[in-house]
């Protein structure tokens, strides 16, 4: 059966498949769809049928209409689904045994940069924890964490050789819910390289994260420096729609 002889329902289906293929493969975001009249002629359907098909695309946010100008392909959005995991969980999910070597932990004033990131004043106290994180006993990451004392009083008395997230969640009933994170390339300075058992200036991944709790409070600022030769950042992304 040729396209033009197809029953109405099949033609509508063909029209939709054609439009989806146009949007997905041929047109760029912001480019214009053919006019209703052209599509109606091409598929041998009424303009009302075309309008309904385009309505559906609009509801699905695949296209948008501009009055008097036509219908355009929407900008595709990419939703990142990234689980908020601790170092320990991250390593276990890779089949590696996480470990921690405490460099030091102290109560210090937040200072301008840390205070700003945590939304507290520079004079407010934070607990600064510096750790070498290991995977199967090998250094993997250098981690500097800053936790406001107001969120976790007495944190310095808690065990520091395991999971910090566990301590925050169990001892302080803090539920870590979301985080803002940046990832950058960097090179290791002398002292960092020694702690991670690699050569100075070796490439590394600098991950900075501010994590918020169930009340929207910034609970931790962390700067994690991962060895470039041992760590890759892996995420699953989903296309919407
Ligand atoms: C991750 C977090 C760090 C957190 C740690 C807790 C980044 C940049 N860092 O490494 O903020 O302190 O997990 O891990 O993602 P833990 O519970 O095993 O101590």
Structure characterization notes:
The chain is elongated. It has helices at 8-26, 36-43, 47-59, 87-93, 111-118, 164-171, 190-196; strands spanning 63-66, 70-73, 78-81, 98-109, 125-135, 138-148, 176-187, 203-213, 218-227, 236-239. The strands form 3 sheets. A 6-stranded antiparallel beta sheet has the order 4-5-6-9-8-7. It has a two-stranded antiparallel sheet with strand order 1-2. The protein has a two-stranded antiparallel sheet with strand order 3-10. It folds into 2 domains: 3-73, Arc Repressor Mutant, subunit A (Orthogonal Bundle); 80-239, 3-Layer(aba) Sandwich (Chorismate lyase). It contains 7 helices and 10 strands. The chain has 241 residues and is an alpha+beta fold. The relative contact order is 0.12. Helix 1 (8-26) crosses helix 3. Mean pLDDT is 89; it is low at 1-6. 2-acetamido-2-deoxy-6-O-phosphono-alpha-D-glucopyranose binds at residues 86-88, 98, 143, 145, 163-166, 207, 209, 220, 222, 224.
Entry keywords:
Arc Repressor Mutant, subunit A, elongated, Chorismate lyase, alpha+beta, 34% strand, 29% helix, binds 2-acetamido-2-deoxy-6-O-phosphono-alpha-D-glucopyranose, 2 domains, 241 residues, 10 strands, 7 helices
- Largest β sheet strand count, sense and barrel closure: 6 strands, antiparallel
SS elements, strand count: 10
N- to C-terminal distance: 31 Å
User: How are the strands of the largest sheet arranged?
Assistant: 4-5-6-9-8-7
Question: Helices and strands: which structural class?
Answer: alpha+beta
CATH superfamily of the largest domain: Chorismate lyase-like
Just name the CATH architecture of the largest domain. 3-Layer(aba) Sandwich
Pfam families: GntR, UTRA
Protein name: GntR family transcriptional regulator
InterPro entries: Bact_HTH_transcr_reg (IPR050679), Chorismate_lyase_/UTRA_dom_sf (IPR028978), Tscrpt_reg_HTH_GntR (IPR000524), UTRA (IPR011663), WH-like_DNA-bd_sf (IPR036388), WH_DNA-bd_sf (IPR036390)
Organism: Nonomuraea purpurea
């Amino acid at each position: 059966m040729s396209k033009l002889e197809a029953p109405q329902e099949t033609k509508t289906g063909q029209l939709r498949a054609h439009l989806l293929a146009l949007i997905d493969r041929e047109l760029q975001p912001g480019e214009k769809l053919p006019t209703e009249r052209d599509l109606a002629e091409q598929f041998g359907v009424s303009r009302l049928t075309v309008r309904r098909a385009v309505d559906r695309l609009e509801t699905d946010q695949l296209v948008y209409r501009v009055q008097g100008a036509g219908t355009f392909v929407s900008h595709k959005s990419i939703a990142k689904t990234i689980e908020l995991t601790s170092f320990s969980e991250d390593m276990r999910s890779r089949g590696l045994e996480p470990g921690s070597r405490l460099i030091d932990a102290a109560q210090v004033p937040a200072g301008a940069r840390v205070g700003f990131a945590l939304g507290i004043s520079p004079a407010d106290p934070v607990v600064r924890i510096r750790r070498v994180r290991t995977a199967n006993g090998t250094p993997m990451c250098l981690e500097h964490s800053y936790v406001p004392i107001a969120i976790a009083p007495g944190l310095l008395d808690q065990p520091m050789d395991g999971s910090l997230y566990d301590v925050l969640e169990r001892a302080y009933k803090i539920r870590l819910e979301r985080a803002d994170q940046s990832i950058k390339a960097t090179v290791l300075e002398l002292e960092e390289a020694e702690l991670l058992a690699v050569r100075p200036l070796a490439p590394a991944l600098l991950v900075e994260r501010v994590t918020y709790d169930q009340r929207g409070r910034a609970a931790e600022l962390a700067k994690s420096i991962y060895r470039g030769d041992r760590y890759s950042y892996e995420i699953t992304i989903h296309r919407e729609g």
